[in-house]
Amino acid sequence: MRVAFAGTPEFAAEALRAIIAAGFEVPLVLTQPDRPAGRGMQLMPSPVKQVALAHGIPVDQPEKLRTDAQQATLRAVNAEILVVAAYGLILPQAVLDLPRHGCVNIHASLLPRWRGAAPIHRAIEAGDSETGITIMQMDAGLDTGDMLLKRAIPIAPDDTTASLHDKLAVLGGEMIVDALHRIALCELAPAPQPAEGVTYASKIAKTEAALDFREPAEVLARRLRAFDPFPGGVASIDGQPIKLWRAVAEAGAGEPGMILGADGHGVRVACGSGVLRLTELQKPGSKRLAAADFLRGLPLQAGQRFALPDA
């Protein structure tokens, strides 16, 4: 089966590697245009483009896919199916209808929970016990198409978005290969998504990094895991912003934002309920450090207080 592929970040690159390794013919890869990155802000190819070029697969990088001219390369390869994973462009109906088997999406949630842009982040932030991958037949809606395959994995208590992303990327690669074999044999029966249980995973905004210690410690600990590696958490003390990366929720009480203690085990900060023990922190212009190392460069003491955002 001739499998065209559309994707951009590492999550999608893992799926493309799996499809290639399984022996499917990939006549074309679509990916976002090269973007500036790094200190020099030089144009960098996406992870998906790098995989495609390493395997000699033609790459097309249209800004949009709205016009006949923008769709021409995809039309010319006569792919039987288009696999989409974190591509970043909306596919018009003309593209969805183009391949014989349509377009299928590798979505990093157990649909209909967490439709949208940031399903991994939002699952951790919400305290979900599990997540997974759904292989979905795409339609014109936002992650509303019929489900072809769905598999769940647990969310570990210490999972961050980075660690859970890597687990789901591997699972997505395994599942799309399975799905493609079964689609070729007409063995998959599409199932409509349930009408109940729909949630939306809105895109992560940098402004969400600001922590409000009036919230419960457990909520803030989950948020830090969800926002690792982006955007992290941030709070200010004595006018200096500090990035916060890892923390543990513990029992205790105090005035929200107040430091109750600081030692090699962490910086204990009172919250709206419970205490947040910060175990990995970062000063501006520095690197992420365990609490013991951080405190050597910036001693914090009981009685100091983190600023609270305006109510």
Care to describe what's here?
With 311 residues, the chain is an alpha/beta fold. It has eight helices and 17 strands. The protein has helices at residues 10-21, 47-54, 68-77, 93-96, 119-125, 161-184, 217-226, 291-297, and strands at residues 3-7, 29-30, 35-37, 42-44, 59-60, 81-85, 103-107, 115-116, 130-137, 147-154, 200-201, 233-237, 240-250, 259-263, 266-270, 275-282, 289-290. The strands form four sheets. It has a seven-stranded mixed beta sheet with strand order 5-2-1-6-7-9-10, with helices on both faces. Strands 12, 13, 14, 15, 16 and 17 form a six-stranded antiparallel beta sheet that branches. Strand 6 (81-85), helix 4 (93-96) and strand 7 form a beta-alpha-beta unit. The N and C termini lie far apart (57 Å).
Tell me the strand percentage band: 25-35%
Q: From the 3D coordinates, which CATH architecture of the largest domain would you assign?
A: 3-Layer(aba) Sandwich
Query: Structural class from helices and strands?
Result: alpha/beta
**CATH C-level category of the largest domain:** Alpha Beta
- Number of DSSP strands? 17
Mean pLDDT: 96
Q: Given the structure, what is the number of helices?
A: 8
- Counted up, domains total 2
| Largest sheet geometry | 7 strands, mixed
Q: Low-confidence parts, pLDDT < 50 over ≥5 residues?
A: none
Distance from N terminus to C terminus (CA atoms, Å) equals 57 Å
Percentage of helical residues?
25-40%
Strand order of the largest sheet: 5-2-1-6-7-9-10
What is the assigned CATH homologous superfamily of the largest domain? Formyl transferase, N-terminal domain
Shape: elongated
Q: Indicate the radius of gyration in whole angstroms.
A: 22 Å
Q: Write down the CATH topology of the largest domain.
A: Rossmann fold
**H/E element string?**
EHEEEHEHEHEEHEEHEHEEEEEEH
